[in-house]
Amino acid sequence: MSNYPTLKEAYNQAGQGQVFRFFDRLNEVSRKRLLEQASEVNLKELERLLQELVLNETKSESRPQSLQPAPFIAAPQHEGDSQAWAQAERLGAEALRDGRVAAFTVAGGQGTRLGFDGPKGTYPITPVKSKTLFQVFAEKILAASRRYETSIPWFIMTSEANHEQTIHFFLENEFFELGEMNCHFFKQGRMPAVDLNGKILLEAPDSIALSPDGHGGSLRALVRSGSLERMKEMGIDIISYFQVDNPLLRPIDPAFIGFHIEHGSQLSSKMVGKAFPQEKVGVFCLRDGNLEIIEYSDLPEKLLLETEPSTESLRYQAGSIAIHLLSRDFVLQVGGDDARFSLPFHRADKKVESLNSEGRPVMPDSPNGIKFEMFVFDALQFANNPIVVETLREEEFSPVKNAAGVDSAQSCRQDQLRQWTRWLKTAGVNISTDETGLPEFAFEISPLFADSEKTFLEKWSLLEVKPNIREGMYLE
Ligand code: UTP
Asked: How many angstroms separate the CA atoms of 234 and 211, rounded?
């Protein structure tokens, strides 16, 4: 409690004295809670953001004439160079065997659109066994660890709101055979929400409206939590970054890793061709020759719709699916305290449940507050030799974002079924499907049996007795 006078003074000086408005009425426990939260906020950083993004908001100038589509390494299925892919795969496999790669999941989000009560990673997603998102990733990491005869460490970023529950879930599930020592959890930072005049909002008399600082916050959280240092001790220099919501992806992809090494890249990214012009994914572009991702909402409509004259395909087609490889030294640079390399914050206007000046709760029906978030892809501007590598949408991209419809659990389960059906058909199994490739019944293939078409074909060919593919079948 001894820091109260100093903190109160600092908040008064910053014009944020309202944070302690109800302090005198609070009991000891509540006072302690508020003081802890108040010390977590970096008032200097907040003041800078208020100046830049709230009080003197200046629209960043858009210079569409300097934009070009970004080059990318095409997938072998799309006329990419198969030999180069095979070579990259060998190089990546070597790095994996040498223990240079860690898996890294950002799982600190609030998952408001899905509306699931609990950490998103604990959401059941597979069509027969109802394995959770975390279990699917765990089994893919385990499969890769066995293949490359190593123990691939898995770092998981949580947030204040879901940290304890996440750890409890892993304990309950005995770390999915990965071994407790190979699973590392750390929390991301939080930022206060402010009202439209830049005043910090309270969500309760003893509590600031704090929320996670965005997936871009993962870079400084890796540094601040000591995780990056731990990676260094383990000999890890490549971090395989992915989101918690996309169970189709390959958390460990040797060819992607190989290209990253070959190009001396500090930040590599996967892309898929956009499904349609208005698809809500960021697009890889070159602005003045520098690689960046432009949010779909920031790309002028003319460019969004522009097609290549020869092929009629979209000119700005390289959609980001939030899968990256980061070099450890690069994370140290952009996640550290050097202001020249810090990621910018973005402003998001949101409905924030908070207290009014009389201390009564307000349930807004339109945005009444501003949150600040960092985006991981903003690190591209600081990276040496960044590359973009194509993957196939049907093999690696089916995020669970919404409770129903597009990008929902249902669409994701269907995409898993389509994937396994394609693998089986390539192996010569006859399965009847609708015109989208969806079979008439649900079955499941464990990542421990196969985690890609290639591994599936190998494993399948070795089966002396091939199972009958029918409703509820599970192949492990
Ligand atoms: P989303 O942008 O989909 O946000 O996160 P969200 O919070 O999960 O969901 P909504 O928008 O509230 O519905 C993409 C990925 O980034 C992680 C999420 O956990 C997810 O894996 N993320 C997002 C964080 O780890 N921290 C954040 O502050 C934000």
From this structure: 32
Cβ 157 under 6 angstroms from ligand 1: yes
Q: Which residues contact 416 (CB under 8 A, 6 or more apart)?
A: 125, 126, 127, 247, 248, 398, 444
Dihedrals phi, psi of 11, to nearest 5 degrees? -65, -40
Q: How far apart (Å, rounded) are the C-alpha atoms in residues 372 and 344?
A: 10
CB atoms within 10 A of CB 396: 19
Residue 312, pLDDT score: 86
Report the alpha-carbon distance of residue 444 to residue 434 in Å, rounded.
Answer: 18
Cβ of 371 below 6 Å from ligand 1: no
Question: pLDDT, tens digit, for every residue of 308-321?
Answer: 888 889 999 999 99
Output the pLDDT for position 255. 98
The alpha carbon of 86 and the centre of ligand 1 are apart by a number of angstroms equal to 34
Ligand 1 pocket mutation pick from 244, 321, 352, 412 by most atoms within 8 angstroms of CB: 244
Encode pLDDT of 62-88 as tens digits.
555 689 999 999 999 999 999 999 999
Identify the pLDDT of residue 285: 96
Q: What is the pLDDT of residue 60?
A: 57
Q: Is the CB of 376 under 6 A from ligand 1?
A: no
For residue 178, CA distances in Å to 7, 135, 254 come to 44, 10, 20
Tokens of 344: 């910018």
- Terminal CA-to-CA distance of the chain, rounded, Å? 56
Contact assessment for residue 244 and residue 225, using Cβ atoms and an 8 Å cutoff: no
Q: Which amino acid is at 164?
A: E
| DSSP-assigned states of every residue in 62-91 | P-GGGEEEPP-B--GGGT--HHHHHHHHHH
Nearest CA to ligand 1 atom 27: 214
Biggest distance spanned by C-alpha atoms of the chain: 76
Residue found by looking up tokens 């750890």 in the block: 167
* Per-residue pLDDT, 249: 98
- The predicted model scores a pTM of 0.96
Residues of the chain short of pLDDT 50, as ranges, are none
| Residue 428 CA to ligand 1 centre (angstroms) | 39
